[in-house]
Amino acid sequence: MKLKENLENYVFVLPAVTIFFVFYIIPFIWVFQLGLFEWDGISFTKVFVGLQNFKEIFLQDKNWWQSVRNAGYITLIALTLQNILAFMLAWACDRQIRMKNFYRMIFFIPPVLSEVVVGMVWRFIINDIEGANVINRALVQLGFSNLAHNWLSDLKTALTTVAVVHCWKGFGWGFLIFLAGLQTIPRELYEAARIDGANSWQAFKKITVPLMVPVIVLVAILTVLGTMQVFALITSLVGGEFAGHTSVPVLRIFYSMLRSSRFGYACAQGVTFGMMLIIISFIQYRFSKKDQPR
Amino acid sequence: MFFRYVLLGIFVLFSALGCSGQKVVSKPSVTIWHWMTDRDAAFQELAKKYETLTGVKVNFELYAPSDAYAQKIRAAAQGTNLPDVFGILGEKRDFAAFIKADHILDLTPYMEVNNAAWKNSFFPKALAVNEFTVGNSYGISSGVYGVPVDILTIQMVYNKKLFSQLGLDPNQPPKTLDEFLQIGPKIQAAGLQGLVSGWGEVWMIDCLANDYAFNIMGKDKVLATIKGEIAYTDPDWIKVFTVFKQMQESGILAKGLVTMINKSAEQLFANEKAVFAFNGSWCVNVYQGMNPSLEYAAMLPPQVSDKYPMSIWGGAGSSFMVNARSKNKDEAVKFLIWLTDQDQQAYLSKATNNLPANKNSLAKIPEVLAQFARGMDYATHPNVWGVSEFSTVIEAFDRGIQSIVIGEKTPGEVAAEVQEIKDRELAKKRVK
Description:
Chain A is mainly alpha-helical. Chain A has helices spanning about 1-35, 50-60, 60-95, 100-105, 110, 115-125, 135-140, 160-185, 185-195, 200-230, 230-240, 250-260, 265-290; strands spanning about 35-40, 45-50.
């Protein structure tokens, strides 16, 4: 009887497992397998090179690790600046303020725009010779003319500028998820806290933050996964790698495939990058489990 | 009951259609994939004309942008479902890989008929890009494997009006690097931009650097470097890198050049904000669309040395290849012969402001386009050198020049870095 029940359960999940296996597991295995070959992506013959591609990635490819560092930097800014901003705005909109629905709509516009469009628009806003030069004009008006310069083609500011534009585009997602999370916190908890004499900051610290931990972890994981894979925004904003200062892993994979015709190597880069993201997400998940109240 | 009648009705209908006495003979058709947004309307027009003339339907299918097209072609090659005719975007080694995988028909027999009339109608340099010579390093049987549809040269252009404003003679562009560099301070004083180009997309940097390499050390030494016989740390290569440093220091380069995409560069030049541009002959069409009253002329990059002539990249702009597995390959070849005939080439040139591949169609083209055409005398291209540089070395080379332009690295440092990668690739090759 129990066997029959078990079988029934398996039958129910079988379609989902099959789809997952066919569209996720098999391609991943196939990409890993291709990573063991030297292949130009056109010929029918591939040369088996074992783990040579992976060895090259780990031991020789400085450009790859520079791109990982760049993506890590953008992710760090997104995790802090973008998510703190998203959390604070969600918190503000969760309270009784006027026009909160209007704010919700406004904050959600950037995420629905295409990365290419966002890149082009910001390029126009920032750039001083081919665009409106808004940032520099504002700086001059505010008396900071010494700070005005070409933000996108200065090696000191290019990556940070990309990161800030990425945050502008991405914070709407975090805002929505944080807002949904905040709305699930029972209002009675705040009322009880107020009766007990807690002020707003204490209520925020003792009620909002602890109950929002699972949501914060979810947003953090999504931010890491989304930001590490940033690509189109960089291409449209700075035209490419800018002497390596704005290169990111997906751009490297793309160049390995199309510019260098090294499909096998690109697959190995893809697998390496995928494994890195899985490990980061797993670590984040474990930490969140550890911090959560039982 | 009703459902059964419906089923029976469908069965009878299909049976009746199946018993039709007339066999439908489908007209031959040729499918062509391309990425050339600016030429699509002209291609469609020619396809209509060809169908009227011959009854053969030609379907031009546009897939843009070019990166997406390049991916599509590779995916189709892996699935052996390439169209009858297609173009390849990439280097000669990619072209060779397609041939090795039997995706491309050898057109030599078609080119040679009627005393090689078809072959002789093309500019030799345009055809050379599509040709593999005897004993080529790619291991491909010698022959012609592609049909050039148009040609291009990549040169500099300068704004005549801005030249006059700067107190320069609009009919005397700078011929030497020194003359060129001396204009830099004047441009800065006038609040204009100097040279604009798509250097964010890097390959144009490679193109200009190669021009200077040919001018400074000559073709043989450049090819010897690619073969690994000369190091990139050689003084002549340092000179090539130094040209970019000198340009940056003189103020002749536009601000933000290293992150500039070519479309932005074209807008800046067309809007008369920049004095010089480094661009391909396709720019004539682009500038025409952006600013029809723009007064400009083409010029060769100002030379550093008079020991060797200045060379520029040029040859076939875009080419079409015939799918060797296509059932319609004969129809495809016939169409390509017609497409590259004098009249059709003249029409394409007029409609798109591109240089025709057929040398007999050059009679009536605008003056600026003719200047670009004259550049064919100085044209060369990596695809005709017979040897290819490692892609990792090209990447390090281009990134290195970007670093020089932003003042991050010196020419010597870049040369050493490029050579380090070259040595690594050569070592890998030896192991194989």
